[in-house]
Amino acid sequence: MSSEIWVVADIKADGQVRKVTFEVLSEARKKLGGPVCAVLLGSGVSEKASELASYGAEKIYVVDNTNLKDFNPDGYVKSLCELIKKHSPAVVLSGNTAFAEDYMPRVASGVGSGLAMDCVDIGMTDDGRLKIKRYSHSSRAISTQEFSGDGSAMIATVRPNSFKEEESAGAGQVVNEDTGVTDADIRIKVLEMKTKESDRPELTEAERVVSGGRGLASEENFNYIYDLADLLGAAAGATRAAVDAGYCPYDMQVGQTGKAVSPVLYVAVAISGSVQHFSGMGSSKVIVSINKDPEAPIFAKSDYGICGDLFQVLPPLTEELKKALSE
Amino acid sequence: MKIVVFITQTQDTEARIKVDSSGNSIDTEGMKWIMNPYDEFAVEEAIKTKEAYGGEVVLITAGPQRASQALLQGLAMGADSAVHVSDEALGETVDSLVISKLVASELGKIEGVDLIFTGMKIIDEESVQVGIQIAEELGIPHLALVSKVINVKPDEKKLVCQKEIDGGSVSVEVPLPALITCPDAMNEPRYASVPNIMKAKRKPMKTVSLDDVDFGSLGIGRDAVGKSGAKIKTVSLEVPEVERKLRIIKGSDETTVKGDEIAESAKELVKLLRDDAKVI
Questions:
Q1: Phi and psi, residue B208, nearest 5°
Q2: What is the mean pLDDT of each run of 10 residues along chain A (327 residues)?
Q3: Looking at beta carbons, which residues of chain A come within 8 Å of B38?
């Protein structure tokens, strides 16, 4: 086993490196010792190596292969397993993104490793075993876990927004690798991809999130949420109830089924506050809620709030925020 | 079609939870155990698929004796038979790798499996990985977070699904057999009727003891099952009381703000966010 700490880069559909990659690189450098290296997998991604170096990667393993386009798990699993078997890193980390949740479990199986997912803290024991914290029981419990140190790579994914990204130049030596992924390895065929461009930040990496519940009562009324989000430079989210009612798309869902978010500011509009919703946003730093039901459970879990009708409260609140933000 | 559903019995996370005296697990005294809620969607999807294309639904779980209750619930919903890999050590926190190997090994003995469904997350451990690892152990593809099965083509051994991704959705085709993980948006799980609950008790349930498992072929030792042999150990567990400031602005009658109170409350909230929380 080498002492290398690997961070697998997460690339967005637009080709940019996701912020969580830099967060994990920065934290790994500070907390884990050992040379921190990056792994860059994808199609046409080679030029991103220098960005990874600027966040401290000493080495960057690059697999640039056209069969890795469209985020098909098969090619990523094969590539990462090959690299881990060849170089035996001590630790393999990545952001806990939807894509990592999809392919990292197969990698852990493929190399016979333990896998800790959605960690909110990482560290090392004195004898070089990875130590992590993660939520369980619908985010109501938090456990500290340690790898047993059986010699297999210790694999973990990290919740976005858990750490600060800090630039610090690493040597950035590029190591080109060919993992031999061919068409034949790709079993899942993409027939059609429907994506909508949005100018708002992504939910999981946003510093601020504004979410709406079923109390918004219509798709049109969700414009209240979008307007407030845009004013705050926030991402827009929703409860399962609002998504099920068809007021907004599924990718806005925050909660046990949807996304787990950890912003500095979470504004919950017309959200009662179920256990399932809390499971996805309970780790937010400041929670603000607006609800007309004085008994809404969310108030007992909020820092600030207004008990009031959102349609009456949001217009003056928006005006006041505008004033405060322009000062 | 032969359809398998991998289910898990979990703690009811909506119940009150507390840490036990060991300091590293949840006190299970008086705990309510339920079928993992996401697995209910998986069972429903399997039964719907069977209703549309014919065939049979087999449930499988790996857990202690009490987990047979979750299997009975699935049988009452309409599954035809069940397999229970049973050992009390499986009630402890066990590596996902070990569970997936045990389940894949029994699943591999069922002939002609076309489709495997399972829930997208196990709520007590908040684990999304076991199902996907079963697919890896079996060497078959998986699709996580499928929002809709669009088309099953049993004759061509293919399946077309819609999957949700960031910023939209994607439709994909995958060769069978394949494993699918199910979110809650997928369907409305049916309730088991009383006569069906009675009938469930007479449906075939096969119990597999760890003594019958060929650990050598799985590449793990029997001591890998249970806390002591885990690759990842929980050293401490907390149920933190989150302290929030609870500064909720209400109307003079302790309910909603009204009239002039509305504008005042907006002003006050913004002031709090700026001066007290310092987030704007």
A1: -110, 125
A2: 95 90 97 95 96 97 93 92 98 95 97 97 97 92 95 96 95 97 93 83 93 97 97 96 92 90 96 94 95 96 97 96 92
A3: 257
Q: Measure Cα distances from A286 to A44, A163, A238, A266, B273 in Å.
A: 39, 16, 17, 6, 9
| Mutation site, A77, A97, A109, interface B, largest B CB count within 10 A | A109
C-beta atoms of B126 and A138 within 8 A: yes
Q: Three-state secondary structure along B130-146?
A: HHHHHHHHHCCCEECCE
Contact B24, A145 (CB under 8 A): no
Strands (E), chain A: 5-8, 36-42, 59-64, 91-95, 115-124, 130-136, 141-147, 154-158, 173-176, 189-195, 208-212, 235-238, 265-269, 286-291, 304-307
> What angle, 0 to 180 degrees and rounded to 10, lies between the N-to-C axes of helices B96-107 and A98-111?
80
Cβ separation of A110 and B136 shorter than 8 Å?
yes
| B2-229: CATH number | 3.40.50.620
Task: Write down the domain spans for chain B.
Answer: 2-229, 244-280
Domains, in order of start, for chain A? 5-185 (3.40.50.620), 203-326 (3.40.50.1220)
Q: Is the ipTM of this complex over 0.85?
A: yes
Q: How far is A96 from chain B (nearest CA, A)?
A: 11
